[in-house]
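Tokens as discussed.
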């Protein structure tokens, strides 16, 4: 199955995104084998940096590179995104277009969470969601609110709430920090916490 065959945006109502970098995962996956879904912030500015990009002249796409490093930090020796998929990990973003400013407007996160909700519904055997950053956390909370469900992740700084047990529709959620992109190299203090959260999620498989 390819997610892009079932999920898509036609109207592009958001005003603070770059439509030219719109992307829905188009990788072939066996949905029944996916146990962990990692949700990051938004699509990259350059599609060649996306998780599943192929043929990039510079080698490994940036999102793939930093994500593989994060899993290796956590003790899981993987060399490719395909190896992660084979381990039961699926990667996506909360916002399907690249951002145009440092922050993403709340109404954009809410709007795009409709696509994310449809995407997540395709995977029936998920045991945990890794929420990498505030945008991913907001998106999951938006899905719950829209459906009259309790808020999966409470308000508060990530460093204060991470490590506690939270659930979304019966599945564990792990609020963490953004692992996709150049900030992963800059914010070295967060790499240890990202590795801990990945390890805790992977223990559920």
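Sequence:
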């Amino acid at each position: 199955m390819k997610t892009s065959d079932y999920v898509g945006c036609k109207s592009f109502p958001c005003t603070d995104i770059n439509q030219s970098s719109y992307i829905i995962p188009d990788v072939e996956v066996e949905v029944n084998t996916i146990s962990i879904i990692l949700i990051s912030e938004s699509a990259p500015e350059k599609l060649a940096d996306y998780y599943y990009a192929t043929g990039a002249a510079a080698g490994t796409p940036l999102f793939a590179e930093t994500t593989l490093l994060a899993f290796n930090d956590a003790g899981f020796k993987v060399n490719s995104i395909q190896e992660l998929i084979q381990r039961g990990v699926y990667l996506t973003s909360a916002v399907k277009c690249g951002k145009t400013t440092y922050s993403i407007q709340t109404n954009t996160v809410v709007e795009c969470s409709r696509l994310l909700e449809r995407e997540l519904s395709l995977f029936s055997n998920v045991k945990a969601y890794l929420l990498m950053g505030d945008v991913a956390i907001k998106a999951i909370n938006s899905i719950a609110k829209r459906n009259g469900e309790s808020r999966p992740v409470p308000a508060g700084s990530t460093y204060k709430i991470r490590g506690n047990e939270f659930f979304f529709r019966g599945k564990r959620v792990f609020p963490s920090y953004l692992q996709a992109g150049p900030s992963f190299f800059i914010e070295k203090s967060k790499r240890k916490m990202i590795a801990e959260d990945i390890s805790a999620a992977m223990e559920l498989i």
